[in-house]
Amino acid sequence: MTTPTYVLTLPLQVETWQEHILEKRLHIGRTIYNACLGEAWRRYKYMIRNPRYWEVVRMPKGKERNQLLNQFKEQYGVRKFDLNRYVQGMGRTLKQNIGSQMAQNIAERAFQAIEKVMYGNGKKVHFCSVGQFFSLEEKTNKTGFRYFPENKRMEWLGLILPVMIKNQDEYAHLALQDKIKYCRLVKKVIRGKNRYFVQFALEGFPPKKRNHNHSKDENARVGLDIGTSTLAITSEKEVKLFELAEGLSVDERQKRMLQRKLDRSRRANNPNKYKEDGTINKSNREKWIQSENYKKARQEFAEMSRKIADKRRQSHNQLANYILSLGLDVRVETMNFKGLQAKAKKTEISEKTGRYKRKKRFGKSVANRAPSMLLSIIDNKLNYFGLKLKRIDTTKVKASQFEHFTQTCVKKKLSKRWNHFEQGDVQRDLYSAFLIMNTKDNLREVDVGRANETWNNFFGKHEQEMERIKHLSKKQVSSIGL
Hints:
- This protein is an alpha+beta fold.
- It has 2 domains: 5-203, no CATH class; 221-479, no CATH class.
- It has 16 helices and 16 strands.
- The strands form 5 sheets. It has a 5-stranded mixed sheet with strand order 10-9-8-11-12, with helices on both faces. It has a 4-stranded antiparallel sheet with strand order 1-7-6-2, sandwiched between helices.
- The chain is globular, with a radius of gyration of 27 Å.
């Protein structure tokens, strides 16, 4: 049985000669990963060439099918155990830099990539290129890369790396009192320089921070209607409509400009690598030429992407803490964000212009705002209370179409942002969040009686939120769809 786990990340004090050794070991780890991935991929390709394998895959799901599939995996060596055995020789050869348990862990990471393809969660595997392998981890805190609390340092096959813990960091000191399951070395490139961190996987629940004011009421409901770029929140205490990852629009614009600069530079330096229609010529095997200006721009782009990712995660954590301060019974619609990212399959021609309609959907918005990440953060925080994020059945509840006064479903265009009632107009996303909050415990239908009881409170707070939004700038208002 797995125990609850949380992560604490702290910087390491690394000297120049130690950095060279760490880079060497990360490079060895990358080599092992690619070797294991290539071997596992080779075995998997042999397995799927067998016609009998596909006959078994098409069988009805059940014990017989699972047994036959396991027999195929054992026959062709497409199992985690087989890959661990394959990496043993490498572990013995490279034991001065990579321990046997760490080598096995790398092999298991490679096997996870194969599993994604095997179970339909991916189309192909991706090998790790030079300089793109950023972490190594052990299986326990007993061998290899491990922490010694009495000296507050990491020791790893001859390397001694002090852990930088501030005396006033109460959270870190309390966290390190918990049992350490294993440690992970993480490399980050910050402002063009390599920085190294240790991530402690700790058993239990994280210490409570002073500035967190999470609700203690497990029955206090919070309804969330999350979109590709906005979030509507409804509870008995507050009714709010926010833009996800607010304030990133300026950074995103600069990021797009750098992307165009990099593309122009690539095309200017490598004209033979492109066809006449502008697409990449895959038959050309010449080496890509990268100018010094291109390398500087690429480094600038990487730094900007890192900053945007950090800001986005920080914003999501703050928003998750705010939501949990309203209540611990958090309900949300089930959304397929991966499907929203994909381009439309159907080719259509516009009646007005006579041109082909764009197939793009919400890929850029989902990538920039990361709504799925916010839900994962909320779910993880709820796990610390022994609770889970409740996902309602979207097809049954139909929160965007249902009206609780008439108890009917009315289809509405995406461009229609308001619902009209006798009391007044209600913003569509906030009303959906209100219905989600008032779903029954089976999460398959709206509790109309409860919705009628909480309607007056919701409508009053809705009007307050609309007054707040009126004082925002035009750009902010348009960003939340109003």
